[in-house]
Amino acid sequence: MCDKVALVTGSNQGIGFAIVEELLKRGVKTVYLTARNEQRGLEAIEKLKSKGLNPNFHLLEVTDSTSVKKCADYVKTKHGGLDILINNAAVLPEHWEEIIYEEAVPVITTNYHAILTIQEHFFPILNQDARVLNISSDLGHISNLRNKNWIARLTAKDVTKADIDAFVNWFLDSVKTGTLKPEDFTQTQMLAYRVSKVALCALTIVQQGEIDRNISINSIHPGFVQTSMTRGLGVFTIEEASKAPVYVVLDVDQSVKGQYFWYDKKIKDWRNPGIPLFGDFETIRKYM
Ligand code: NAP
């Protein structure tokens, strides 16, 4: 048994649920399954209890700062701090091949802005040597961008949160005003999601640069996984996809910081736009 406290956002189903299960099976003593909907969350808790596991539950709507603060305050009061934080909750736009402003906004809000809200309330309660893992995507690799200015700004050693905010605002403005240039991107399917995950990978590097207490912060592409997000399409089961994230938060050396992991547990160069596109929509189309 390892005497750590872990919390996974958006873990009532999908990869997050399987990560909670794997953490418990690996012997992490206190694991919070969190959900934005109490009923869905408690049903997930029951599923794990029926397998003889003992997860904890807390409500957590990642886009609501009151909910995020309440959850962080609870963990602080109950346990004194947090050792493992996995930012897993995310959404895809409903229409995969069209770029619709009303769909782009909640994607950016959930997949990027909510991470900042979580940072505000949860980073102060992280313990010495804690680990944060941001669940990104192959669609979050820098090779998804073609715009040279944004590639240079986001991959710069001194990239800032202001740069990333400017990037997501530039994207949203261009969708709103109908000025988006498809040639700025390698592919435009699921574009708001791509932008949100590129932003998340860049933010991982910024967060790592700012944090103290020997905390490690990494991101990962968990693979193409059969979940409700992919409408059941994918190569891996959620159980298979849970292994690499759990490896990063339990097994990797603490000195590995600010890296982009792949589902095979290897580190990929996130900053290299010249490698073949990760997140090729044609791969997804083959399964449709
Ligand atoms: P999923 O099955 O749709 O699960 C997403 C989870 O996030 C659900 O529990 C959902 O809650 C929750 N969620 C969404 N918005 C939330 C909010 N505002 N507050 C709190 N929870 C929220 O998706 P998944 O495929 O497991 O995805 C997990 C992570 O892997 C995501 O970060 C995704 O981008 C990433 N990823 C997935 C794939 C893949 O092939 N599946 C590939 C690359 C990356 P509800 O049940 O209430 O909707």
Write the layout of secondary structure elements.
Blueprint: E1 2-8, H1 14-25, E2 28-35, H2 38-49, E3 56-59, H3 65-79, E4 82-87, H4 101-122, E5 126-135, H5 148-155, H6 161-176, H7 191-210, E6 216-220, H8 238-250, E7 260-261, E8 267-268, H9 281-286
Parallel strand pairs: 1-2, 1-4, 2-3, 4-5, 5-6, 6-7
Antiparallel strand pairs: 7-8
The chain binds NADP nicotinamide-adenine-dinucleotide phosphate.
NADP nicotinamide-adenine-dinucleotide phosphate (NAP) binds at residues 9-10, 12-16, 35-37, 40, 60-63, 88-91, 110, 135, 137, 221-222, 224-225, 227-230, 234.
Uncertain regions spanning at least 5 consecutive residues: none
Q: How many helices?
A: 9
Strand content: 15-25%
Average pLDDT number:
97
Largest sheet: 8 strands, mixed
Q: What is the string of SSEs from the N terminus onward?
A: EHEHEHEHEHHHEHEEH
Biggest β-sheet: strands ordered side by side in the sheet: 3-2-1-4-5-6-7-8
Large-scale geometry: globular
Please give the alpha-carbon distance between the first and last residues: 42 Å
> Considering DSSP H and I runs of 4 or more, what fraction of the residues is helical?
40-55%
